[in-house]
Specification:
Radius of gyration: 15 Å
Distance between the termini: 25 Å
Largest sheet: none
Strand content: under 5%
Protein name: Phosphohydrolase
Number of strands: 0
Pfam families: HD
Helix content: 55-70%
InterPro entries: HD/PDEase_dom, HD_domain, HDIG_dom
Length: about 190
């Protein structure tokens, strides 16, 4: 483990394991997916894994201020945890957060406070989250989107957002899979 991941895991566990054990299992699963694509990330592999295990900390009861977990988690990481800026930005923008921010009237706050990281890292974190069930086991993005829409209801803010985001989620996943396939074709 790198220093970044050594720092990230206990922080996420301290915020999620007791009050939200299922969410903690999801974050562990997302981090596991991050490790599976590490070869295509090079020096950013540890960065992605740290963001993956931290991506949902904004759901922690003590952190939930706006009710929009990417923003709440990123603000905590920036203001309290003094986290690496790139981890903060990945958490802020994970899984097409800008679309949900628009629906919540928080888009200007999100993009004004947190710049987006490179597209390949945003794609990678989206891939990891959308290939992990709420219990932390592997899934696929179509089943994951359907699960989210079903859990929140199709007419809810989250249900509407996730259906709107579905094409971008699928495109992000496809781009990551293309990079993984290309890396496997490279000679040793």
């Amino acid at each position: 483990m790198s220093k970044l991941t050594e720092w990230a895991y206990p922080l996420a566990e301290s915020l999620l394991a007791e009050p939200l054990p299922r969410r903690w299992q999801h974050c562990l699963g997302v981090a596991e997916r991050a490790r599976t694509i590490a070869p295509v990330l090079g020096e950013d592999a540890d960065l992605l894994e740290a963001a993956a295990v931290l991506h949902d900390i904004g759901y922690a009861p003590d952190l939930a201020k706006t009710g929009f977990h990417p923003l709440d988690g990123a603000r905590y990481l920036r203001n309290v945890a003094d986290a690496d800026e790139r981890v903060v930005n990945l958490v802020a923008h994970h899984s097409c957060a800008w679309m949900e921010a628009e629906a919540r009237g928080l888009h200007d706050e999100l993009v004004g406070e947190f710049p987006r990281e490179s597209a390949h890292l945003n794609d990678a974190l989206c891939y990891c989250g959308m290939n992990t069930t709420p219990d932390g086991t592997p899934t696929n993005p179509i089943d994951r989107v359907n699960e989210i829409a079903g859990r929140y209801g199709p007419d809810s803010l989250i249900g509407t957002f996730i259906r709107r985001a579905e094409p971008e989620i699928l495109a992000s996943t496809s781009r990551v899979l293309e990079r993984v396939a290309a890396a496997k074709r490279q000679p040793m």
